[in-house]
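ok so i was messing around last nite and threw this chain in just to see what happens. nothing serious, just curious
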Amino acid sequence: MKKIINTALVMAYFCSVSSISAANLQPLDDLLLKVQQGYKQEVSLNQARIAEFIQRHDQQKIALDTANHELDMAQQESNLSQQKITVNSERITKLKKRLDKEKSDLNQLFKALNSAATELNQQTKKSMISAQFTQEQQSISPLLAENYQSSNSDINNLWSYYLLHMVETGKVSTFTTKLVYPNGTIEQEKVTRLGPFTAFNKQGYTRYLADSNAFMLLPKQPQGTVKDNLANFYEQTTNVKILTIDPSQGPLIAIAADKPGNLQRIQQAGIIGALILVVGLIALIIALHRGIVLFKINREIQRQRNNLTYIGDNPLGRVLAIGTQEQLSADQKTRLLDEAILAEIPTLRKGLSTLAVLAGVAPLLGLLGTVAGMIETFQAITEFGNANPKILSSGISQALLTTEFGLAVAVPLALTHSFLANKCTSLIHILEHQGAGLLTLNELGTRDAA
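result:
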């Protein structure tokens, strides 16, 4: 910094003496030269010092990097040692936990085997398969005890019993077991089992009794398709046979056996149900009669339309007969044609109003039976309470059956009435159309003659 100040002073000095004469410039040039040489020496010396400083700085940086590297290596070694200590500690902790878990797993395994054996035993007691394999069921009895330490043989027995039930679920098997007859006697009889669902023999369907490990022959056998399937099973010799499956193991078939027939349903519906059926029978007779009559009239009208030269004894023929009377005027023929068509309409629509009334009466009778059945049900509840559903079944059955009968009669009657009314309307349109055409022809003929 001092060198720079000296240089600045020299430069200022030269500027101050710039006005000196040319004779005095030579000594000043020498002085300037000396100053410049001194400045160059100072610059060279400073550059050497700077180079030496940079060299020392690089050497110190290398030494610092080496020290930092050694520090990092030492830190890494320390971290590795600490990690080994941590890993070993964690390993010791895991080994202890593993030991405790294996003990706990072993206890849980025993508990799981006990739970599985208990659950399987409860399921198989309700299944008819256990009636055929009683010894296999006893093989899992040791596992039912609490805190029992199972062996490999016990586990194999449990696994085998599981597989046995899985396989037997899809088999049809016949075996000898206890059969309880409706009179209370117990005999050893052959029973055919369809998986765990349905059991039967040649005498009929049976129901499995889980408490006594026996089968009970149903006192009342189902009818219809269920009965036919059982008969075909013993009669047919083909490999493919149709059987009835009861997933409830007997109760559904028992309900099907108790299902009332048509006569019993009529008896349950009572007087109102019988009255609805009588109304339906009367309406059926009227509908058949009117259908036959309208069919015949339609056939005669179609024949008359195909042969207009021959006037027959039918509604269209009677209408056309008026047009053949030449002594009548056009106005007279018009009035007579209208009267003839109006005279045919009651014949065509005869009985349709009765069908409409009967179609409306049938659901009303069903509603009446429903009200009567509900009244009977409430009376039974008042007298006996609602604990026994069999006491309430008669009133509810009447209430529902009469409604069913009323709708079953009303719906076909409404459709039949609509069909016959449309047919009657179409025939009336034919008469009106033919009458209008006849009047048109008469008017054209009168004009031609004029």
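not much to say yet. The mean pLDDT is 76.
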